[in-house]
């Protein structure tokens, strides 16, 4: 059985979502939430991912990186892989580990930590480049030697589209 909570709306229209509920739903401080009215008098709250909104272009871009460089590549939102290309790339839906999230929140290109993904071991070293404006939206992971330039190009391209 699902039980609801009752919260008051303050004069600025804000509603507090309890910390326990945010933790259970995996909502971190600063993350964007989409608010959609439903039929009747309801509201639907949903985690928002600007990277998920880049439907066709994200896969085409990663395919181009793989085709041009031979390096596998993956694009993540703030918590999981949303697009991937090439042999040795993590599968779509693979979750980022705490160290992978921490590397993205470092806000600068870096080597991919060995345990960046849950239940995934990659064969090649690589570079990750966070995608962020005010908050980190996700990251580009390119697996291979000299992957830094490719990762930076993809991250900058996507950042300009969201």
Rounded Rg: 18 Å
Distance linking N and C termini: 38 Å
Shape: elongated
What is the level 1 CATH name of the largest domain?
Answer: Alpha Beta
Structure classification: alpha+beta
How many structurally independent domains? 2
CATH topology of the largest domain: Beta-Lactamase
Low-pLDDT segments, ≥5 res:
none
Biggest sheet details: 5 strands, antiparallel
- CATH architecture call of the largest domain: 2-Layer Sandwich
Q: CATH homologous superfamily of the largest domain - what is it?
A: GAF domain
Side by side, the strands of the main sheet go 4-3-7-6-5
- Give the fraction of residues assigned to helices: 25-40%
Question: Could you state the order of secondary-structure elements as H and E?
Answer: HEEHEEHEEEH
Mean pLDDT: 84
Number of helices: 4
Please report which band the strand proportion falls in: under 5%, 5-15%, 15-25%, 25-35%, 35-45% or over 45%.
15-25%
Report the strand count. Answer: 7
């Amino acid at each position: 059985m699902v039980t609801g909570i009752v919260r008051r709306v303050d004069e600025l229209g804000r509603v507090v979502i309890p910390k326990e509920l945010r933790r259970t739903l995996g909502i971190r401080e600063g993350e964007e939430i989409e608010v959609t009215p439903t039929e009747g008098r309801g509201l639907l709250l949903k985690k928002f991912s600007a990277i998920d909104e880049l439907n066709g272009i994200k896969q085409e871009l990663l395919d181009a990186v793989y085709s041009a460089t031979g390096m596998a590549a993956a694009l993540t939102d703030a918590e999981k892989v949303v697009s991937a290309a090439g042999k040795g790339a993590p599968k779509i839906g693979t979750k980022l580990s705490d160290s992978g999230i921490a590397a993205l929140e470092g806000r600068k290109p870096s080597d991919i930590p060995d345990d960046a993904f849950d239940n995934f071991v990659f064969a090649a070293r690589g570079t990750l480049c966070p995608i962020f404006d005010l908050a980190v939206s996700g990251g580009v992971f390119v697996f291979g030697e000299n992957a830094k330039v490719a990762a930076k190009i993809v991250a900058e391209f996507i950042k300009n589209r969201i």
